Amino acid sequence: MKHGPVEDGTILHKDYVCFGRKQSNNVRARIYDKVKEVIELGYKDFFFKIWHDNGLISYFDRWCMEYAFPYKNMDYLAKARIAFFYVEHGADGERLKVAL
Does the predicted model carry a pTM greater than 0.85? Predict the structure, then answer.
């Protein structure tokens, strides 16, 4: 773990937040974005079905996550949202092929 000041203009990306120490016998809590982990590392995509079946995510969310999963990039979630909308509401067959 690093400690120190942050320079102006620096962008920080927090992948997780942790409270407590790993070495202690006390309570430790770690909070992180499981969706980001599954998509970017490209494994454990079975979580999407489990989350959907248990009502934790909607069909829309599951569809978007499964769309982004093969690309291993969270940026594809935005593209998936647009593609889903066009699949549901678009009329041009050629654009529909591109969306999928």
Answer: no
For residue 14 the two structure tokens come to 């927090």
- Count, residues in the chain: 100
Provide the 8-state DSSP code for 20.
Answer: S
Q: What radius of gyration do the chain's Cα atoms show?
A: 18
- The confidence score (pLDDT) of residue 28 equals 85
DSSP state of 18: E
The arithmetic mean of pLDDT across residues 76-98, rounded, is: 78
Strands 29-32, 16-19: pairing kind: antiparallel
Residues 64 and 56: their CA atoms lie apart, in Å, by 14
Helix or strand holding residue 48 (H, E): helix 46-53
